[in-house]
Amino acid sequence: MKHLSLFCLYALVTLYGHTGVLSQGPSYGERGSDLGIQVFQQVVRSRPLENVVLSPHGVASILGMLLPGAHGVTRKQVLNALRYKKKGPYNMLKRLHKTLTAKSNQDLVLIANAMFSQEGFPMEEAFVATNKANFQCESRSLDFSNPQGAADEINEWVNNKTKGHIPSLIKADMLDSALTRLVAVNSIYFKGLWKSRFQPENTKMRPFNGGDGNVYKVPMMSQLSVFNISMATTPQGLKYKVIELPYHGNTISMLIVLPSDEDTPLSRVIPHISTATVQSWTKLMHMRKVRLLIPKFTADAEVDLEAPLSALGITDMFSQNKADFRHLSAEPVHVSKALQKAKVVVNEDGTKAAAATTAILLARSSPPWVTVDRPFLFLIRHNPTGTILFIGQINQP
Ligand SMILES: *[C@@H]1O[C@H](CO)[C@@H](O)[C@H](O)[C@H]1NC(C)=O
Ligand SMILES: *[C@@H]1O[C@H](CO)[C@@H](O)[C@H](O)[C@H]1NC(C)=O
């Protein structure tokens, strides 16, 4: 199944209506997810026939961690892309984080955040404190002058937090022994059992029409049950079905989107997806007794976030000269790499999914500018003897 780079079922895991999170207007969970969905849309445009898995919330989370350190245009670009309010998104993000990870979810959602900083890197206290308060973000110091050792440590943390699903996120060559200052990491692990499980004896090899036009034999799970199903239409009039598969805790569902017409490529439907579209499906849902056949599958993907985020207007943080993280540290830093790895495993019992997202921050390789643009004094000195050969004052060069 891993090889079905052409397997194009599009599954979306959403979190439904917990008090206070889904209110009027997009919630903070939705605002962040919309940006993540747009990243996904960018990525699938360049990989139309591959399996792609991405955690929209993971993308929003890593930006949310950097946000308290950002200033000026760097900050504005992130706020605009996320549609966060200018002032104090942190209370909302804190509530979101609490709700997502609440013990009341019977399905397991584990979200962990950490910042690994270079020993001795002077981070602003308020930046560290805000991240700790809002996202229970751990802070650890590391020695990046040993890139392999530092990468191993970060990967071990990711491996622990994703319960072995993402064994490695960072390669040593992404770290610079002299300039890496901070690696921010978000990890999300989800484990949900289907509310209505599939019987393994009903899983049979059946044909699946791959996105490339070939037919593949894949293990198809099957069950006869009552499901919420709706028929929706894109603005261009293309019809698609939405099927909801709830997990046993009843707060999380997988939604499967399937174009109704076999000839409609998935790529015609994906651009139309947003959290508002997803909300609109809930109104169209009807409970119907059907025999549902869906493949058992495992898929994973690695996504470099710089190009998609830049296309969505987040550019300055990646620029050595424009990045403004003055509330993170007095030493100028910029994001040299942002990436996410995600994996999903769907079988008869339920779903396990994990994502790890990181932003690696580097100090400037060229020193900060010092501009002599005012009257100045010069001395010409013979150093071995200390002899001043000339001295001058320049008021107007
Ligand atoms: C990973 O988990 C193991 C076992 O709980 C623990 O000993 C280790 O310190 C953890 N590693 C990191 C980097 O947190
Ligand atoms: C269908 O959706 C409604 C409304 O969200 C929900 O109450 C019900 O439990 C769902 N039923 C199934 C079978 O998923």
From TrEMBL:
Signal peptide residues are: 1-23
This protein's GO cellular component annotations are:
extracellular space
GO molecular function list: peptidase activity; serine-type endopeptidase inhibitor activity
Report keywords, A-Z: Hydrolase, Protease, Protease inhibitor, Serine protease inhibitor, Signal
Residue ranges spanning the membrane: these are none
**Family annotation (Gene3D superfamilies):** Alpha-1-antitrypsin, domain 1, Antithrombin, subunit I, domain 2
InterPro entries, alphabetized: Serpin_CS, Serpin_dom, Serpin_fam, Serpin_sf, Serpin_sf_1, Serpin_sf_2
Protein name, as recorded: Protease nexin 1
Species this protein is from: Oplegnathus fasciatus
